[in-house]
């Protein structure tokens, strides 16, 4: 049911073409050495990014890594920083782009840091320009390209992601500044972190009503900072804040379970929420971790990407709390394997796992 | 309080409510500071919450048993315990889901004398809370409100207008004088500090604002602005929307009593008849009372 098949993310090796003698043509616009990226955003791609994913990812953090490979486009938050919420949004290139061309000396992988809000703004305003000038055979196409330009008042050319809408009569160009593309070593570090982040928890429970959960957690923030999260093989999810003055929590039962599951012993069914949770943990049927309530609330902002549901699980050895958002193909209940989004929350205390 | 070893003691109180937002509104009315300790008093008539600023200001919220769907009282006497008001309100707020009615059960005491709350409207999802309580260490100052004379000195004014007047009186930065006089029947609020501000409510001129008035002689007392302000600063918007009035009474020695009515509407029972505008069944109202001590007789302006 999931598309976290590791083989999807292996990149086959290419041999890079030999550099030509005239490596640096004298043009005012050049691309970073050896790197090329150009693609056209499809209408589907624009909708996915502008209306759904970029608003959600903006909440995860201002800056993210944009990681482009031969087959995939990824938006990665905090993968190299262990203290923050990590978020990984992956798209197969066909989900976003037409005519996707990428090449680099690092196995055709390119990664750089970018401000999500600037990306969002560029796409938003390109869209409004596009719709202004109509559609049809000469319809505007939104091209994204990696370039190096000399900005005004600068002596050094800087890298940009350029958005170009070429219409019948006019063209609009927007440059989104990006960081220097990551070196080979840095990309390796990123890819390694990405591989580690694909570890699936053994038990996942499905939460259908993210709004309800978000409402609750937003109010919990007033009460305390540390959130205990417990997940059982019976399909129970507990979120609870405990301070010296108050214990306040919510229990969601009979959730759909993916992975390891078992039935709740009958004698437990009528006990209080907290007692049930403690007993399940002592039997090894549940795991519990503690996370920062603000991180939990932040990850819930991913509902802006309009997932169909979310799955919560605790990674092996309580390494982190994982939430995986699932997207169905429009009009069906089949998983759309071309899109994925998941978050990993750092754990503050191993709890009992 | 006899119990056999095998039998658990019945709790002092088990009650259920389906109007959490209304209860939150009522309790918020008496939140004038970030950290306030409240005392809850349980009786067969309902629950009373008391907060005070020692010696100067006291507020009470009466949640009578008719506000609850279920109210099972099993205590001997009237248990009293202390909780943090802010924590109680923030906690109740988590149960209140916009657009949905939520049924909550409240129980006291828990195994460790906690106040226990849990939502009971769904089998598969539930919110629960345990709030630690304290033994209240100070006896609530008995404000012992007594009428000023044979004729009460009181007036009822639109809550919205009262709040606005008190908000405006912040400007002079002085204590506030409240004066009632029988001829012409009127109430005057006055502040003299950085500039003067006087606000008059004339009884006959505008019965929309001043709804009732009773006074047989001129009286005037001064009250510290911040305490007067506390009586209106957190009036819930439902009170303003419902166009309610607040009653102010001056008792013996100048003690001021301010009373508000907060709607705590119950959503679960559909009524066969449409209530006429403004009429609320008594079971839907929480009563709030503030007591403000007057300043000593001197004319000097403080603060």
TrEMBL record, chain A:
<protein>
    <recommendedName>
        <fullName>Checkpoint protein</fullName>
    </recommendedName>
</protein>
<dbReference type="GO" id="GO:0035861">
    <property type="term" value="C:site of double-strand break"/>
</dbReference>
<dbReference type="GO" id="GO:0006289">
    <property type="term" value="P:nucleotide-excision repair"/>
</dbReference>
<dbReference type="GO" id="GO:0033314">
    <property type="term" value="P:mitotic DNA replication checkpoint signaling"/>
</dbReference>
<dbReference type="Pfam" id="PF04005">
    <property type="entry name" value="Hus1"/>
</dbReference>
<comment type="similarity">
    <text>Belongs to the HUS1 family.</text>
</comment>
<dbReference type="InterPro" id="IPR016580">
    <property type="entry name" value="HUS1"/>
</dbReference>
<dbReference type="GO" id="GO:0000723">
    <property type="term" value="P:telomere maintenance"/>
</dbReference>
<dbReference type="GO" id="GO:0031573">
    <property type="term" value="P:mitotic intra-S DNA damage checkpoint signaling"/>
</dbReference>
<keyword id="KW-0539">Nucleus</keyword>
<dbReference type="GO" id="GO:0030896">
    <property type="term" value="C:checkpoint clamp complex"/>
</dbReference>
<dbReference type="InterPro" id="IPR007150">
    <property type="entry name" value="HUS1/Mec3"/>
</dbReference>
<dbReference type="GO" id="GO:0000724">
    <property type="term" value="P:double-strand break repair via homologous recombination"/>
</dbReference>
<dbReference type="GO" id="GO:0044778">
    <property type="term" value="P:meiotic DNA integrity checkpoint signaling"/>
</dbReference>
TrEMBL record, chain B:
<dbReference type="GO" id="GO:0006281">
    <property type="term" value="P:DNA repair"/>
</dbReference>
<dbReference type="GO" id="GO:0000077">
    <property type="term" value="P:DNA damage checkpoint signaling"/>
</dbReference>
<keyword id="KW-0234">DNA repair</keyword>
<dbReference type="Pfam" id="PF02144">
    <property type="entry name" value="Rad1"/>
</dbReference>
<keyword id="KW-0539">Nucleus</keyword>
<keyword id="KW-0227">DNA damage</keyword>
<protein>
    <recommendedName>
        <fullName>Cell cycle checkpoint protein RAD1</fullName>
    </recommendedName>
</protein>
<comment type="similarity">
    <text>Belongs to the rad1 family.</text>
</comment>
<dbReference type="GO" id="GO:0030896">
    <property type="term" value="C:checkpoint clamp complex"/>
</dbReference>
<dbReference type="InterPro" id="IPR003021">
    <property type="entry name" value="Rad1_Rec1_Rad17"/>
</dbReference>
């Amino acid at each position: 049911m999931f598309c976290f098949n590791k083989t999807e993310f292996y990149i086959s090796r290419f041999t890079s073409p030999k550099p030509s003698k005239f490596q640096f043509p004298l043009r005012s616009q050049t691309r970073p050495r050896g790197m090329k990226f150009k693609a056209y955003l499809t209408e589907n791609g624009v909708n996915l990014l502008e209306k759904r994913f970029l608003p959600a990812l903006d909440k995860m953090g201002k800056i993210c890594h944009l990681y482009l490979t031969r087959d995939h486009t990824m938006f990665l938050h905090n993968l190299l920083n262990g203290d923050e919420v990590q978020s990984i949004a992956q798209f197969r290139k066909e989900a976003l782009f037409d005519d996707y061309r990428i090449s680099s000396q690092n196995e055709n992988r390119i990664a750089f840091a970018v401000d999500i809000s600037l990306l969002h703004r560029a796409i938003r305003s390109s869209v409004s320009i596009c719709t202004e000038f109509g559609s049809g055979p000469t319809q505007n196409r939104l091209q994204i390209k990696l370039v190096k330009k000399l900005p005004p008042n600068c002596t050094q050319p800087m890298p940009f992601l350029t958005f170009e809408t070429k219409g019948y009569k006019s063209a609009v160009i927007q440059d989104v500044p990006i960081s220097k593309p990551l070196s080979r070593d840095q990309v390796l570090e990123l890819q390694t972190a990405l591989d580690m982040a694909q570890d699936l928890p053994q038990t996942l429970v499905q939460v259908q009503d993210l709004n309800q959960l978000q409402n609750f957690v937003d109010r919990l923030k007033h009460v305390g900072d540390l959130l205990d999260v417990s997940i059982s093989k019976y399909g129970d999810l507990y979120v609870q804040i405990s301070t010296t003055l108050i214990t306040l929590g919510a229990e969601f039962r009979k959730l759909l379970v993916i992975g390891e599951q078992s039935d709740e012993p009958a004698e437990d069914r009528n006990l209080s929420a907290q007692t049930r949770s403690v007993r399940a943990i002592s039997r090894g049927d549940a795991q519990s971790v503690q996370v920062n309530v603000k991180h939990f609330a932040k990850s819930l902002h991913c509902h802006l990407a309009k997932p169909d549901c979310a799955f919560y699980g605790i990674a092996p050895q309580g390494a982190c709390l994982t939430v995986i958002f699932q997207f169905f193909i429009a009009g069906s209940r089949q998983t759309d394997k071309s899109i994925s989004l998941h978050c990993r929350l750092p754990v503050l205390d191993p709890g009992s796992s | 309080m006899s119990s056999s070893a095998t039998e658990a003691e019945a709790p002092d109180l088990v009650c259920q409510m389906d109007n959490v937002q209304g209860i939150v509104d009522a309790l918020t009315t008496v939140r004038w500071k970030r950290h306030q300790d409240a005392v809850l008093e349980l009786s067969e008539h309902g629950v009373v919450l008391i907060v005070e600023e020692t010696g100067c200001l006291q507020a009470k919220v009466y949640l009578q048993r008719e506000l609850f769907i279920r109210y099972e009282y099993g205590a001997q006497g009237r248990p009293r315990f202390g909780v943090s008001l802010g924590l109680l309100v923030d906690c109740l707020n988590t149960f209140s889901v916009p657009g949905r009615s939520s049924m909550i059960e409240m129980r006291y005491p828990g195994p460790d004398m906690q106040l226990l709350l849990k939502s009971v409207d769904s089998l598969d999802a539930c919110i629960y809370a345990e709030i630690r309580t304290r033994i209240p260490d100070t006896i609530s100052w008995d404000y012992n409100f007594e009428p000023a004379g044979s004729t009460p000195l009181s007036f009822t004014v639109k809550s919205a207008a009262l709040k606005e007047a008190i908000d405006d009186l912040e400007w002079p930065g002085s204590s506030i004088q409240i004066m009632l006089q029988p001829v012409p029947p009127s109430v005057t609020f006055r502040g003299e500090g950085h500039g003067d501000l006087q606000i008059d409510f004339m009884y006959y001129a505008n019965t929309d604002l001043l709804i009732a008035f009773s006074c047989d002689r001129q009286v005037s007392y001064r009250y510290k602005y911040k305490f007067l302000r506390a009586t209106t600063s957190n009036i819930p918007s439902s009170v303003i929307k419902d166009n309610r009035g607040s009653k102010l009474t001056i008792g013996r020695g100048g003690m001021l009593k301010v009373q508000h009515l907060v709607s705590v509407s119950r959503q679960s029972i559909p009524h066969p008849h449409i209530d006429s505008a403004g009429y609320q069944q008594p079971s839907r109202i929480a009563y709030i009372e503030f007591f403000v001590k007057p300043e000593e007789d001197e004319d000097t302006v403080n603060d």
